[in-house]
Amino acid sequence: MKELIILPPGSFSEKDYQRFGIEILKKNFSVKVLDCSAWIYKKHLNLFLKNVYKTKEYISITSRKDFINFISTINSPIVIDRLPINNKSNWIRMLLRRKKSLFVYLYLNLFPEKAYSNQKVFDTILNPRKVIKIFTNFLQKKIFNLIKSNSDILLIGGLASKKKLKNKNLIYAHSMDYDVYLSIKNKSLTNKNNYAVFVDENMVDHHDYFLLNLRPPATEEQYYETLRKFLKKFELDSQMKVKIAFHPKRQKKIPNLLKEFAYTFENTAEFVMNSKAVLAHSSTSISYAVLFRKPVIFLTSDEIKKSWQQPRIEKFSEALNGQIINMDQNSEKKLQIETLLKVDEKKYNDYLDQYIKVPDSPDIPIWEIFSQKIINKSY
Questions:
Q1: Which residue in 235, 263, 306, 360 has the fewest CB atoms around it within 10 Å?
Q2: Taking Cα atoms as reference points, which of 292, 355, 346, 301 lies closest to residue 321?
Q3: Contact 324, 350 (CB under 8 A)
């Protein structure tokens, strides 16, 4: 069997096992999951050692020597590259390319992006630390681009990515969330309870903020109290209960102020499917609302408005023609629920094509599409 190496962006979880379709890939490839987080993020091991899913495909790389030992036994593998762009990961890529690897990059789970404003650029220039960070990132990105190859394969999940790509080796597919949608879309609806679902993003201490060098857009002191008050107000004005779909990377840590609400960590898609409406900031799980045609109400706050998150919320709102509510400024005024619960069908259809699924791509799991294309070399 052809060797296939998966390089996850951080530690490998049970959810990653499902999202990367390991069971499907194993039917056609000899799969290895190379977890390099203990080496790449050596100074922050506590963020990456929790809930690691150690299957027989799993290999932990804790040093440069570990990696050299590993690649000495392989030749011409397929590499699904999800590593961040930095000096260590670029070194990993260079050694793998010397092994005549076929690299695969994923352009999935897309979302509307907002361009930097002139003011944002100006503010950055005035901050020396940000300038150094941007210059360092630029150099690392430059090296990454230099070691890329025209033979790389791009697995894309929407027209928005296709427009930006010059590579000819494209596999048309859909987002990972669409795989979940396919698995549950024929289930019977259980709309006995009238509720809205809030899609949590772990705005306070999501460990991906560290990976991306981002400051959290909200603080625990302000965010949870503001959110709780708004969700209770929404329940009162709409006569709907609110359930929370917590972000799975919370590792089942529920903020005390939100414990009064029904919740899930695993069934976001089904919570959305059976809901009347979705409350969210800018989660990619908004795609479930699009797929199940649920109205989306976008939430911000005085604190979030000052962060990098606000432009994302605005772009999502623009893409779906959904309303934005500032949770800090709607404590007295009654919410106009009928106005909020509208779906712009044209916008939703366009969002589906641009960010969730390439039109006319097969309605089968991503990794079945991928496997078929690779085996038949029809990309």
A1: 360
A2: 346
A3: no
Residue ranges of the alpha helices (H) in 79-174?
A: 87-98, 118-125, 128-147, 159-162
Residue 41: exposure state from Cβ atoms within 10 A (0-12, 13-18, ≥19): buried
Crossing angle of the two packed helices 128-147 and 87-98, in degrees rounded to 10: 0
Read off φ and ψ for residue 271, nearest 5 degrees.
Answer: -60, -45
Kind and range of the H or E run holding 374: helix 366-376
355 DSSP 8-state letter: I
Q: What are phi and psi of 239, to 5 degrees?
A: 60, 30
Confidence (pLDDT) at 143: 76
Report which of 98, 106, 61, 55 is spatially closest to residue 80, judged by C-alpha positions. Answer: 106
Q: What percent of the chain has pLDDT over 90?
A: 68
User: Could you tell me the CA-to-CA distances from 60 to 54, 194, 260, 317, 376 in Å, in that order?
Assistant: 9, 46, 39, 41, 31
pTM metric for this prediction: 0.88
Measured at the CA of 327, the angle between CA 250 and CA 313, to 5 degrees, comes to 65
Helix 366-376 crosses helix 176-184 at what angle (to 10 degrees)? 120
Single out the residue of 301, 309, 297 nearest to residue 331, CA to CA: 301
List Cβ neighbours of 259 (8 Å cut-off, separation of 6 or more): none
C-alpha–C-alpha distance, residues 37 and 19, integer Å: 18
Distance CA 296, CA 343 (A): 8
Q: How many residues belong to the chain?
A: 379
Please say if the pLDDT value at position 99 is more than 90.
yes
Output the 3-class SS for 243-296: EEECCHHHCCCCCHHHCCCEEECCCHHHHHHCCCEEEECCCCCHHHHHHCCCCE
176 contacts 357 by C-beta, under 8 angstroms: no
Residue 114: pLDDT over 80: no
Sign of the torsion formed by the C-alpha atoms of 291, 297, 303 and 306: positive
